[in-house]
């Protein structure tokens, strides 16, 4: 198991480096930092030249990449295009907020989906199964941004009607609160709607997958053997069926993490949450390739780390891959 | 061998494979119903100019900010500038649908080509292509799309469609590659090669027809995914831009302060949900039609 | 004649499918005597596996359905069992070995874990250490080398032959009286098949169990079986002791099966398969199910219209379901 983990770790590092080069090339080719600069009125020639020197814009791409990579590692991703504001501190702050949102949503989604999936498979064609399937289809057809808006509309309509606002529809925390437990509760209250949006999108996909996986396993030969041995039904379901059915879900969750972060972009923008998503959106609107690249790198790292964890969980669940 | 009395009266109908697929699909009432709805919606899109009671940007200040009503055919209400949202949605549907279909077709073409090459040649070629695909996936798709749109995009539907297609191909590539990796071992491939068929011919005429099912299913599901992603991009202002109509854009423009005019956000969204739902049902029905899971019981 | 350890009486099993109701097994009756090896022969779709799966309640219901019949084990009708009593029987007095050991063993659990749970499911007092010790002993019995090492390995780490030995060990763990072996060698290489045969013989010696050997391989039957049941289209068409069946088959299907083997001394003369296809089990035609392919019938009316009964044709022990079984007497085997 240990050698498996080490192998996956080394592989992840290689992928990260490769991804960084890809990201840099992609952004450099498509964006033109000078373009944005040229839009600034009254920019002196000296200022312009300063930026060119600082960002090495005169040099070919591989050279620029080398400078940028060095900057990324040693100088906290450098500074923004205009205003020369250090990138990393901001990025770090928003990353923590987004991680809260995303990890809570993912955990919730997996738990709910597993329960729904297993129950649906055991009680195939029951009313619960049909309801769950309908919910899944609806969830997969609903754009996340629209769901977020509708939730906001509902809260506002309820407020108009009753004068009471059940959930906050913007920002991470209220302005006036005390620290400690009150802060945590207040944050949780603000995260309810955003988490709902992200969770719905994930549950819809995961639940169907879990159900399908569970059904396939329940009808497998080895589950039949387990029954033929005289094992109690509960043991057959949990020890034999469930554990095997969970394995493909791990892969799906790992692959979907990227989508979740993408969803965070949308959700944070709509709910005005000070997270990575909103940071990215603002960086795009400002046409700042340095912020965009830093963001892409940090996100890629998060995804790679998440995939690494998923690989390890997979290796733990399925002994067959440990020896490849 | 003397003549054997084969059972009289037992007719064996042999139908083509496509006929079986069609029969199985037609058994799924939900999928068939959804297909009908989709065709109707597509027709609305095609004949948008004839069906829409008003123009996309036709102002009518006197009737501004009205809720949905049958009066004057303002079925989806009007916005602050008096623009009829039903008409706007109808035009939006046209754009969104054809962009989504375009994305599905192009991404399927690219994905099938890459997946086929990777699966057929295997080894280093496969490794290289798959590593590349993995790399593309290390960054959230939406982020890449947004970045591409900002730096390259012009808001034109065709260009947005191309950008989307360039990200959507990975899913279908994976599937085709998987199918080809197993098909490669089949005897008929060796037979074709032994008969002197070129690689291209083997891939296109012999192997590809065998994975038509998953390809079609995925292409269908890609349409739904494309609609949803394009709507998100347009909502954020980084997708299809005015003056081109777009459903996502309509939702954005419908956000008034405090959500007073709630119908402006609701109806375009419901239409998106309806389209995506129907496409998914059809895709699901197709999936069952191409690969019915019979419970095998060995006697 | 002492009581049979397992007696099937008039078993009929159906399945609901997209295309209609499939009658997998119709009116099947046969006995399994203590300590004997009973071979059940037939093509795929003959109902040989379904009848045994029903005995242990392993037919998924729905879409399956036991329409009628009994499976008497020591006086108890197994088909009526549910819950705890059924679990006591499964893997205990009546155990089953399945065809493909790769798919029949749980890939994420060790061999020791899987055999151990079979042991502990049937004797609550056995703790983990005792179960492990017994598992190692069982693995030794079935001829697995280095059992102390193998017990902690996963199925994918074992070869096909070793996996099947492990399955056999699992089945005999609780000293069964009836051991059902469903195509135990079909998924294995020919060289391994002989080894597994030996393991089965050893298992029988150790447990004195009666073995039901389901197979389409006549060679296996010749090696192991004491008596033979021949099934076709969900029905029993012939029963007898192995020598009588092989030397003078009394049913055209059995004769056809024996003829279709390639004898060692053939000079390259063509093989003689049985022409045609097995009938659809959805709406079986009236009359004898085999008649469309039957050389013996020669299109006679009674074969087309009347279902032949299973009756004694050469002594009480040898029975056949053919209107013209007598005509087959004297035909030498190929």
Task: Offer a quick outline of the entry.
By secondary structure, chain A is an all-alpha fold. Chain A is built from twelve helices and no strands.
Class based on secondary structure composition and strand pairing of chain A: mainly alpha
Residue share in β-strands of chain A: under 5%
Instruction: Please report the distance between the alpha carbons of the first and last residues of chain A.
Output: 11 Å
Compute the CA-based radius of gyration of chain B. Answer: 24 Å
Coarse shape of chain B: elongated
How big a fraction of the residues of chain B is strand? under 5%
Roughly how much helix do the residues of chain A carry, as a percent range?
over 70%
| Overall mean confidence score, pLDDT of chain B | 81
Biggest interface and which pair forms it?
A: A-B, 49 and 42 residues
Total count of strands of chain A: 0
Question: Mean of the pLDDT scores of chain A?
Answer: 83
- Give the helix tally of chain B: 12
Uncertain spans of chain B:
1-12, 294-299
Largest sheet of chain B: none
Question: For the report, how would you describe the main beta sheet of chain A?
Answer: none
The total count of helices of chain A amounts to 12
H/E element sequence of chain A? HHHHHHHHHHHH
Low-confidence stretches of chain A: none
**What string gives the helices and strands of chain B in order?**
HHHHHHHHHHHH
Task: Describe the SSE topology.
The complex is a heterotrimer of chains A (324), B (299) and C (334).
Chain A: H1 2-30, H2 33-39, H3 45-54, H4 61-74, H5 87-122, H6 127-141, H7 144-162, H8 181-218, H9 221-228, H10 233-271, H11 276-285, H12 289-317
Helix pairs in contact in A: 1-4, 1-12, 5-6, 5-8, 5-10, 6-8, 7-8, 7-10, 8-10, 9-10, 10-11, 10-12, 11-12
Chain B: H1 17-27, H2 29-46, H3 48-51, H4 85-121, H5 123-136, H6 141-152, H7 157-183, H8 187-194, H9 199-207, H10 212-235, H11 247-253, H12 263-290
Helix pairs in contact in B: 1-12, 2-4, 2-12, 4-5, 4-7, 4-10, 4-12, 5-7, 6-7, 7-10, 8-9, 10-11, 10-12, 11-12
Chain C: E1 6-17, E2 20-32, E3 37-41, H1 48-55, E4 64-73, E5 76-77, H2 83-89, E6 94-97, H3 101-104, H4 111-122, H5 128-141, H6 147-150, H7 160-172, E7 178-182, H8 190-207, E8 210-215, H9 218-224, E9 227-232, E10 235-241, H10 242-247, H11 252-259, H12 301-305, E11 311-312, E12 319-320
Helix pairs in contact in C: 4-5, 4-7, 5-7, 7-8
């Amino acid at each position: 198991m240990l050698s498996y983990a080490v192998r996956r770790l080394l592989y992840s590092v290689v992928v990260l480096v490769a991804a960084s080069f890809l990201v840099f090339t992609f952004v450099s080719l498509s964006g033109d930092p000078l373009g944005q600069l040229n839009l600034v009125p009254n920019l002196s020639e000296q200022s312009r030249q300063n930026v060119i020197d600082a960002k090495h814009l005169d040099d070919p791409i591989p050279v620029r990449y080398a400078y940028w990579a060095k900057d990324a590692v040693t100088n906290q991703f450098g500074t923004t295009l205009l205003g020369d504001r250090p990138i990393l501190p901001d990025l770090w702050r928003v990353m923590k907020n987004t991680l809260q949102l995303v990890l809570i949503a993912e955990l919730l989604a997996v738990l709910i989906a597993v329960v729904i999936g297993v129950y649906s498979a055991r009680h195939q064609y029951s009313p619960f199964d049909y309801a769950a399937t309908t919910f899944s289809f609806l969830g997969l057809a609903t754009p996340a941004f629209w769901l977020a808006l509708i939730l906001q509309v509902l809260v506002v309509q309820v407020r108009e009607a009753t004068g009471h606002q059940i959930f906050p529809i913007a920002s991470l925390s209220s302005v006036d609160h005390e620290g400690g437990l009150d802060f945590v509760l207040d944050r949780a209250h603000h995260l309810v709607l955003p988490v709902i949006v992200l969770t719905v999108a994930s549950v819809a996909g995961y639940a169907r997958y879990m159900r399908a996986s569970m059904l396939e396993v329940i009808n497998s030969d080895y589950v039949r053997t387990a029954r033929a041995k005289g094992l109690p039904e509960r043991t057959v379901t949990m020890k034999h069926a469930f554990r095997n059915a969970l394995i493909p879900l791990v892969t799906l969750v790992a692959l979907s993490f990227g989508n979740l972060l993408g969803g965070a972009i949308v959700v944070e923008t709509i709910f005005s949450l000070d997270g990575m998503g909103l940071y990215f959106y603002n960086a795009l609107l400002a046409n700042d390739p340095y912020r965009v690249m830093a963001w892409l790198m940090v996100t890629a790292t998060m995804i790679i780390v998440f995939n690494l964890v998923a690989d390890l969980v997979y290796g733990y669940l399925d002994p067959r891959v440990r020896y490849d | 061998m003397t003549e054997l009395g084969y059972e009289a009266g037992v007719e064996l109908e042999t139908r083509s494979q496509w006929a079986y697929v069609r029969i199985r699909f037609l058994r799924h009432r939900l999928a068939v119903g959804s297909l009908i709805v989709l065709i109707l919606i597509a027709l609305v899109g095609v004949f948008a100019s004839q069906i829409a009671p008003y123009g996309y940007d036709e102002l009518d200040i006197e009737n501004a900010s009205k809720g949905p009503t049958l009066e004057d055919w303002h079925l989806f209400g009007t916005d602050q500038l008096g623009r009829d949202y039903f008409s706007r949605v109808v035009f939006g549907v046209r754009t969104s649908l054809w962009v989504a279909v375009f994305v599905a077709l192009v991404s399927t073409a690219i994905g099938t080509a890459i997946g086929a090459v990777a699966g057929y040649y295997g080894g280093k070629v496969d490794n290289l292509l798959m590593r590349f695909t993995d790399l593309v996936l290390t960054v959230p798709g939406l982020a890449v799309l947004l970045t591409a749109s900002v730096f390259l995009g012009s808001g034109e539907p065709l260009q947005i469609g191309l950008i989307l297609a360039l990200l959507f191909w990975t899913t279908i590539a994976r599937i085709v590659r998987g199918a080809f990796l197993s098909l490669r071992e089949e005897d008929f491939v060796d037979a074709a090669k032994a008969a002197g068929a070129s690689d291209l011919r083997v891939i296109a005429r012999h192997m590809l027809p065998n994975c038509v099912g998953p390809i079609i299913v995925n292409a269908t599901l890609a349409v739904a995914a494309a609609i949803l992603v394009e709507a998100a991009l347009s909502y954020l202002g980084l997708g299809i831009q005015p003056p081109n109509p777009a459903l996502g854009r309509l939702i954005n423009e419908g956000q008034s302060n405090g959500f007073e005019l709630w119908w402006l956000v609701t109806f375009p969204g419901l239409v998106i949900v309806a389209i995506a739902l129907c496409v998914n049902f059809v895709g699901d029905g197709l999936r069952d039609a191409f690969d019915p899971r019979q419970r095998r019981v060995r006697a | 004649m002492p009581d049979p350890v397992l007696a099937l009486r008039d078993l009929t099993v159906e399945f609901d499918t997209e295309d209609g109701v499939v009658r997998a097994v119709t009116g099947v009756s046969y006995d399994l005597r203590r300590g004997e090896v009973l071979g059940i022969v037939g093509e795929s779709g003959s109902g040989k596996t379904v009848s045994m799966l029903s005995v242990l309640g392993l037919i998924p219901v729905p879409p399956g359905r036991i329409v009628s019949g009994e499976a008497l084990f020591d006086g108890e009708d197994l088909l009526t069992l549910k819950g705890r009593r059924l679990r006591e029987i499964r893997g205990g007095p009546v155990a089953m070995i399945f065809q493909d050991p790769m798919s029949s063993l749980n890939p994420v659990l060790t061999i020791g874990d899987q055999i151990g749970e079979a042991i502990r499911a049937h004797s609550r007092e056995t703790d983990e250490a005792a179960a492990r010790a017994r598992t190692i002993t069982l693995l030794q019995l079935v001829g697995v080398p280095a059992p102390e090492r193998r017990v902690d390995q996963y199925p994918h780490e074992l070869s096909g032959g070793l996996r099947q030995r492990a399955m056999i060990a699992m089945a005999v763990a609780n000293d069964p009286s009836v051991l059902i072996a469903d195509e135990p060698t079909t998924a294995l290489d020919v060289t391994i098949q002989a080894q597994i045969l030996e393991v089965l013989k050893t298992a029988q010696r150790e447990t004195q169990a009666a073995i039901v050997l389901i197979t389409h391989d006549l060679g296996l039957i010749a090696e192991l079986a004491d008596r033979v049941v021949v099934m076709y289209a969900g029905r029993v068409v012939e029963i007898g002791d192995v020598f009588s069946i092989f030397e003078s088959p009394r049913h055209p299907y059995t004769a056809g099966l024996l003829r279709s083997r390639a004898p060692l001394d053939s000079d390259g003369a063509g093989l003689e398969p049985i022409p045609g296809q097995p009938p659809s089990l959805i709406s079986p035609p009236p009359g004898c199910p085999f008649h469309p392919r039957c050389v013996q019938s020669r299109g006679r009316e009674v074969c087309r219209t009347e279902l032949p009964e299973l009756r004694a044709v050469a002594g009480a022990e040898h029975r056949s379901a053919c209107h013209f079984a007598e005509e087959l007497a004297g035909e030498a085997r190929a």
